[in-house]
Amino acid sequence: MTETVLTNIEKRRTTTAGWQGIVADWSSDQRAFKNVSWGKAMMWIFLLSDTFIFGCFLLSYMTARMSTTVPWPNPSEVFALTIAGQHIPLILIAIMTFVLISSSGTMAMAVNFGYRNDRRKTAMLMLVTAAFGATFVGMQAFEWTKLIMEGVRPWENPWGAEQFGSCFFMITGFHGTHVTIGVIFLIIIARKVWRGDFETGRRGFFTSRKGNYEIVEITGLYWHFVDLVWVFIFAFFYLW
């Protein structure tokens, strides 16, 4: 009996020491995070947390849509525009998607030129990306205005299930807020790049070490994430 108790105590000590050893190894590892800056690491952590939030929103939307007994509105009818007498479904959404996906290309080019220390092309491409983002937000505002004028509210929907309005405004509004913040951030960083803050190491917010354009890449990570989230919103909300 005594030997059994002593054996269990030794196992517990070994297990505790094992977990503590793992934590100690990771916290003191010189290779796992050696080439990762704090800016990049914090951005990845933020994007991971944001992924959970958007994932919860989309799961809630799918749950509400599949559980309601009232017919869900047809996106091809709700998000259609009448142009030159023709009823064109999802035309505005298609343009918005094209604009946002195109902005990912210009952002990737900006990151590329940033690491080449070509500050003028980097700044111009970041401003083009911001213009694409602002265009997207403007078209989303037009879409919201159109639906509100047609009677869609978070608590009311003339085309069917009442949950449609709350899901639409919550998900697209949260994403639109991210795009708006991204546009502001792009303009701030583009101004600093154009002014040469990263060449001289000028002190200020978001200014890194002299000759280091890493903040451009960090901004790009955020922007690509926003674009990727829109692909899922487009697929689940407008095509389903």
Description:
- The chain is mainly alpha-helical.
- The chain is built from eight helices and two strands, in the order H-H-H-E-E-H-H-H-H-H.
- The protein has a two-stranded antiparallel sheet with strand order 1-2.
- Helix 2 packs antiparallel against helix 6 (163-195), helix 4 runs antiparallel to helix 5 (119-149) and helix 5 packs antiparallel against helix 6 (163-195).
- 23% of the residues are buried.
- Mean pLDDT is 83; it is low at 11-16.
Helices and strands in order:
Blueprint (H helix, E strand, L loop, with lengths): L1 H27 L9 H30 L7 H4 L1 E4 L2 E4 L1 H25 L3 H31 L13 H33 L1 H4 L13 H25 L2
Antiparallel strand pairs: 1-2
Helix pairs in contact: 2-6, 2-8, 4-5, 4-8, 5-6, 6-8
Give a short synopsis of this structure:
With 240 residues, the chain is mostly helical.
Protein traits:
single chain; 240 residues; mainly alpha
The profile of the biggest β sheet is: 2 strands, antiparallel
The percent range for strand residues is under 5%
Helical residue percent? over 70%
Q: What characteristic shape results from the CA principal axes? A: globular
Low-confidence stretches: 11-16
CA gyration radius, whole angstroms: 25 Å
Counting DSSP H or I runs of 4 or more residues, the number of helices is 8
The number of strands is: 2
Placed side by side, the strands forming the largest sheet appear as 1-2
How many angstroms does the end-to-end distance come to?
A: 65 Å
Helix and strand succession?
Answer: HHHEEHHHHH
Mean of pLDDT: 83
Derived from helix and strand composition plus strand pairing, the structural class reads mainly alpha
